[in-house]
Specification:
Layout: E1 7-16, E2 22-26, E3 32-35, H1 43-49, E4 57-62, E5 76-80, E6 95-100, E7 103-112, E8 116-120, E9 130-141, H2 144-149
Antiparallel strand pairs: 1-2, 1-3, 1-9, 4-9, 5-8, 6-7, 7-8
The protein binds zinc ion.
């Protein structure tokens, strides 16, 4: 079957920046499984995968603005420590997830105090053009439970 809204898609991929440096990857030991059409991936990446099938290889190039945004100076913010998600103890340099009105954001922790942290609100990949080489491994229909949760379950997907 071809990737369409409500497909669950298993991928292997390599992500590189403009200089060819590897930023991230997913392979057999750690695949990425996502629910298509529910904003679980970058919009440009989902658009490029639409209509593809298992066995397809897809190259996707996204400018910074289409990926995690341009890098903006002056984006230091002080926020309550309890708003940082992803670890129980924080140190400078760590990446945290912050929930905001317009969704989840990844930020970089700069300083840690007793109750407040200073963060760089730029996504860790802000300002980078992204180059994905994607192998579509498996495409299946989402279960009713996955649709009600808005994400894929199982290996590479959401584990409850
Ligand atoms: Zn779920």
């Amino acid at each position: 079957m071809n990737i369409a809204k409500d497909s669950v898609v298993k991928l292997h991929y390599t992500l590189k920046d403009d200089s060819g440096e590897k930023l991230d990857h997913a392979d057999e030991s750690e695949p990425l499984t996502y629910l298509h059409g529910h904003k679980n991936l970058l919009e440009g990446l989902e658009a490029a995968l639409e209509g593809k099938a298992a066995g397809d290889q897809v190259e996707v190039n996204l400018a910074a603005a289409q990926a995690f945004g341009e890098y903006s100076e002056d984006s230091e913010q002080r926020i309550p420590l309890k708003h940082l998600n992803g670890a129980s103890k924080w140190e400078p340099g760590m990446t945290a997830t912050v929930h905001a009105e317009n969704g989840r954001h990844q930020v970089t922790v700069l300083k840690v105090g007793h109750t407040m942290a200073t963060i760089d609100a730029n996504h860790p990949m802000a300002g980078k053009a992204l180059h994905f080489n994607v192998d579509v491994v498996e495409v299946r229909q989402a279960t009713a439970e996955e649709l009600s949760h808005g994400h894929a379950h199982g290996p590479g997907g959401h584990q409850h």
